[in-house]
Write a structure and sequence with these properties.
The chain has 2 domains: 161 residues, 3-Layer(aba) Sandwich (Rossmann fold); 151 residues, Threonyl-tRNA Synthetase, Chain A, domain 2 (2-Layer Sandwich), CATH 3.30.980.10. The two termini are 34 Å apart. By secondary structure, the chain is an alpha/beta fold. It contains 8 helices and 15 strands. It is elongated. Helix content is 30%, strand content 21%. The longest helix has 33 residues. It has a 6-stranded mixed beta sheet with strand order 1-6-5-2-4-3, sandwiched between helices.
């Protein structure tokens, strides 16, 4: 078993996944990452990401039942139980969460570092949120790093890197695209609901610098008109804020969202929004995909076109062929 564990450490440089928007989807990804990458001997786990990236949600999915000491939606403990940890106590905990940035309001950095080292020496696991803030003072890297921005990245560091400081830089730089895409996606959902009365159980997924909404049948909706309405809301620069429960507020008006903190602050911060003007048909899932993009166009979205066209199961007269492009899978992504 030890040989297998060392082999896995040596082989893993990093793994990259799209960071899903929405609490349940991020839980599901985190559970998969836990099964794939976490080892019982991983005692020091670092979690890195910017504000609103979903670090706490990621941790809850990686370690179900772990009590977080800085839960945004709960009654927070004043400080982590790590600081009262006694290795001689028979029923002392095994896994501790520590938000380094939060704890700096109550403790000096050297106190935080000493608490982490004492727990590690006692063979306990410490999950350090904002690990980059204590990395230099700690003097060594985490055994495994999870970073979340537009993507969720998993690293197995060695003495050659990567540095948590560089990991954070990448995560923070690309987070803005996820915040813009999620905000634009919810604007589209709000318009579909309010202006077209259309809010079915849809497939939601990710694409580079954008989002995907999937439908069993292509809605009879002018996508260019939807785009104009979204651009109008962006031009109005309305406020976006977390609401009660699973809701985000657009200028005080609630909209259902389980990732209510994963947004820009105002719609005017959404850059270069556009919708593809035709639905893309995925023959593997038999879904019709509405695709939205934000930010500068670094490279065009590519579709696989090697697959033969899939036969639609709907009568020909019910579907306007000019509104559908039959393609295969998004490059590097299966829905």
């Amino acid at each position: 078993m030890a040989h297998i564990q060392h082999s896995r450490r040596d082989q893993l440089l990093r793994s990259i996944y799209y960071a899903p928007r929405g609490r349940l989807r991020l839980y599901a990804l985190a559970a998969e990452l836990s099964q794939r990458y976490l080892l019982p001997t991983d005692h020091l786990v670092g979690v890195i990401g910017g504000e609103g990236a979903g670090k706490s949600t990621l941790i809850k999915g990686l370690f179900p039942g772990l009590e977080l000491t800085n839960d945004d939606d709960g009654i927070n403990k004043p400080t982590s139980p790590l600081f009262s940890f006694d290795p001689t106590e028979q029923f002392s905990g095994h896994t501790f969460h520590l938000d380094a940035r939060y704890e700096m309001a109550f403790h000096q950095v050297h106190e935080i570092v000493e608490a982490i080292r004492e727990a590690l020496h006692a063979q306990r696991r410490v999950v350090v949120e904002h690990f980059d803030l204590v990395y230099r003072q700690l003097g060594f890297n985490a055994q495994i790093l999870f970073a979340i921005g537009e993507e969720v990245r998993v690293y197995r560091p060695t003495i050659f890197g990567p540095s948590p400081l560089n990991v954070r830089r990448v995560a923070v730089e690309n987070l803005k695209f996820r915040l813009m895409a999620h905000s634009a996606e919810d604007l589209v959902g709000r318009i579909l609901r309010d202006d077209y009365g259309f809010s079915p159980d849809q497939l939601h997924s990710e694409v580079h610098h954008g989002f995907v909404i999937g439908f069993d049948r292509p809605p009879e909706i002018d996508l260019a008109e939807v785009e104009r309405k979204v651009l109008d809301l962006i031009q109005q620069d309305i406020e976006i804020a977390p609401g009660e429960g699973d809701h985000v507020l657009f200028s005080g008006q609630p909209f259902y969202c389980t990732g209510k903190r994963c947004h820009v602050k105002r719609t005017g911060q959404i850059e270069r929004f556009r919708l593809l003007k035709e639905y893309k048909f995925d023959p593997m899932t038999r879904r019709y995909l509405m695709v939205g993009i934000v930010g500068d166009e670094e490279e065009p979205i590519e579709f696989f076109d090697e697959l033969p066209p899939a036969q639609t199961e709907f009568p020909e007269e019910e579907v306007d062929p000019s509104r559908i492009v039959e393609v295969g899978l998004f490059k590097g992504k299966v829905y």
